[in-house]
Amino acid sequence: MSKNFIEENKFKYVEAGEGQPIIVLHGLMGGLSNFDGVLNYFSKQGYKVIIPVLPIYTLPLLKTNVKNLAKFLKDFMAYKKIDKAILIGNSLGGHIALYFTKLNQKNVTALVLAGSSGLYEKSMGDTYPKRGNYEYIKKKTEEVFYDPKIATKETVDEIYESVNDRHKVIRTLTIAKSAIRHNMAKDLPKMSIPTCIIWGKNDSVTPPEVAIDFEKLMPNADLFWIEKCGHAPMMEHPDEFNKILKNWLTDRNL
């Protein structure tokens, strides 16, 4: 991460810039560094960009679910005295943003979803990476991206460490099951928040039809595609991701 962590109260986060708050929510296996491009760009465009570390591995097991991660976001915003924010979520982060919005529409200026779960994703519970097999982990990590080179050794090492930590494995599977349980299809038509959907054309985790369904179900959504791109567009094509989002925010006067 290009910025230093701030640790206050029970929260750990990075923050840069001044202005309209943007809160970025990372995915289940996604580190905060995945959003370096977003942090560096939007913090210079009149936004205060904040990326909290989600307590995926530190909540009590019975509270390790999408609902309690949305509650964590509520507590974090209250602690930071942020009444309204633009929420950007990738993968599980998108799902948390959606669940939070369902309960707190008045606190959300806009939603930005990239490879979001909430409707359908290939469950990690079905083919959870084999512990101890580094090559298998490497292959699975590379499959998340269109360009396998995006899966750096550092990224693979991080995931390898997670899948060989029993404590993390149990929580990862618990969250994956919770994501399937908390399907948002019935809730989306009630969410009138401006929503920007940025999706990789080659996403194999949340395939393109998921993005099309999000756009159909949400009354105020715009869908943008990024070619030659997998599950994490802000990592694979940071400049294009930022350009699409900046233009959309300008068009929407946000």
Radius of gyration: 17 Å
Q: What is the first-to-last residue Cα distance?
A: 27 Å
- Order of strands across the main sheet: 1-2-4-3-5-6-7-8
What share of residues are in beta strands?
A: 15-25%
* Low-confidence runs: 123-127
Helix-strand pattern, N to C?
EEEHEHEHEHHHEHEHH
Shape: globular
Report the count of strand segments. Answer: 8
Class inferred from helices and paired strands = alpha/beta
The tally of helices reads 9
Main sheet record: 8 strands, mixed
Question: How would you portray this structure in words?
Answer:
The structure is a single chain. This protein has helices at 36-42, 66-79, 92-103, 134-143, 153-163, 166-181, 208-217, 233-236, 238-251, and strands at residues 6-8, 11-16, 20-25, 47-52, 85-90, 108-114, 195-200, 221-226. By secondary structure, the chain is of the alpha/beta class. Helix 1 (36-42) packs across helix 9 (238-251). The radius of gyration is 17 Å and the shape is globular.
Give me the secondary-structure topology.
Elements: E1 6-8, E2 11-16, E3 20-25, H1 36-42, E4 47-52, H2 66-79, E5 85-90, H3 92-103, E6 108-114, H4 134-143, H5 153-163, H6 166-181, E7 195-200, H7 208-217, E8 221-226, H8 233-236, H9 238-251
Parallel strand pairs: 3-4, 3-5, 5-6, 6-7, 7-8
Antiparallel strand pairs: 1-2, 2-4
Task: List the keywords.
alpha/beta, globular, 9 helices, 254 residues, single chain, eight-stranded mixed sheet
